[in-house]
C-alpha cells in the first residue's frame, strides 16, 4: 500500500479514533511558508530539535500557530485583502487575516526574512542588526505583538509577496494537531536568512530534488506535507514558474487505516 507505515504501538489509538471511541484533539490554525531562492529553485529548511514535542528531528519550512493577536489587531496591509485570502483558503476574514499575519511573523521569527516594507511597493532590505534581533526575540516570547512591531517600524505587510499553495490538517491520531495553510514566497532582494536557533538546531538551503533524495536514503526525515510540497516544487525550473503556477487549494487530511494487521497513514 502507498503510504507511511505506522508503528504497531499506535494500534489501539488508531482503532479507538476510527471507531469514534476517542475524540481527536482539536487542530490549531497555523501557517507555513516555503521560502524560495535561485535558479533552479532552492528551499529554506529547518531541522527541528529532537526534544520538540511535535515533528522532532524533522526538516520543515518556517511556520507556526496563529497568535490570537494576529487576528484581532489591524496592521498596515498591501496586496490581496483578508477577505480575498479567505476566499482562497475557505476561511472567514478574521481567520484569513490571522493566517497571513502568522505566515509573515513566523517566517521572520524562524529565518530572519521579513515580507514587509516601508510602503506597498517596497520591502525591507536588511534585518540583521541588533535592534531587529531584539524585536524578533520579543515576537517569539510574545512580549511584542506583530501589529505593534510593524507599527513601531512604520512597515506595511506585503501579502502580495505570498502565494497560496496548500492546506494540510494533521491526522486525527496525533495528540498535537494543526490546521495549516501553506504559502510560498521568494527571498526578497537584499535580505538573507540566518541560523536563528529557537526550535531548530540546523538550517539549510536545498533544491527540492536533493532534499527528497536525502530523505529517500534515510539521511533526513520529512513529514508527508513537506515531502509532498517538495515533490511539487521539484517540477519547476525557476521561482517565477512557481509563482505563476495555478493552484487549487484542496484540504488534505491524511487518515490512519489498518490493512491486514498493519497500520498505514494514507494521504487521499
From TrEMBL:
PROSITE patterns: NUDIX. GO terms for molecular function: hydrolase activity, acting on acid anhydrides, in phosphorus-containing anhydrides; metal ion binding. Keywords: Hydrolase, Magnesium, Manganese, Metal-binding. InterPro entries: NUDIX_hydrolase-like_dom_sf, NUDIX_hydrolase_dom, NUDT19. CDD domains: NUDIX_AcylCoAdiphos_Nudt19. Its cofactor is Mg(2+); Mn(2+). SUPFAM superfamilies: Nudix (SSF55811). Residues 26-228 form the Nudix hydrolase domain. It comes from the Bacteria. This is Nudix hydrolase domain-containing protein. It comes from Nonomuraea pusilla. The lineage of its organism: Bacteria, Bacillati, Actinomycetota, Actinomycetes, Streptosporangiales.
